[in-house]
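Backbone-to-sequence.
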């Protein structure tokens, strides 16, 4: 699986997501601009000693990423998605795309890929889940559907 963070802002979230990617064998894609330095101590601390297990890619923008992987399926996580993340059948090389903590994914991207937008159900009186929790929820559903490949 591939996890994409579009313009992440909080180093601790990205560190936690890095750790989740490392233990699941998922590749992490970070789309610039990043709201922190990749040398940030909070980023490194959250990932603890998992960094050498992580395959990480950096992209200048979302269009670059989409152009690099034209034959892959992308799923865009948003509170505005029409379908639940559990209603999708995931493949092992799919991309799960998440937006920045304060704004989510850009409106133009959600509009262009409306049929690929997914959401986690939640009560309407709160804004959203923490980014690292959202990644874990969707990623583990995708892995569950595939029988947790390579995991024990």
């Amino acid at each position: 699986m591939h996890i994409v963070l579009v313009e992440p802002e909080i180093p601790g979230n990205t560190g936690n997501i890095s750790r989740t990617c490392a233990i699941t064998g998922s590749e992490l894609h970070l789309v610039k601009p990043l709201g922190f330095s990749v040398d940030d101590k909070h980023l490194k601390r959250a990932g603890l000693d998992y960094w050498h297990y992580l395959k990480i890619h950096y992209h200048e923008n979302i269009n670059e990423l989409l152009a690099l992987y034209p034959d892959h399926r992308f799923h865009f996580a948003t509170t505005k998605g029409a379908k639940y993340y559990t209603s999708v059948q995931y493949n092992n090389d799919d991309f799960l795309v998440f937006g920045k903590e304060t704004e989510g994914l850009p409106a133009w991207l959600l509009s262009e890929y409306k049929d690929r937008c997914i959401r986690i159900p939640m009560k309407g009186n709160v804004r959203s889940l923490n980014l690292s929790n959202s990644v874990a929820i969707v990623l583990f559903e995708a892995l569950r559907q595939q029988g947790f490949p390579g995991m024990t």
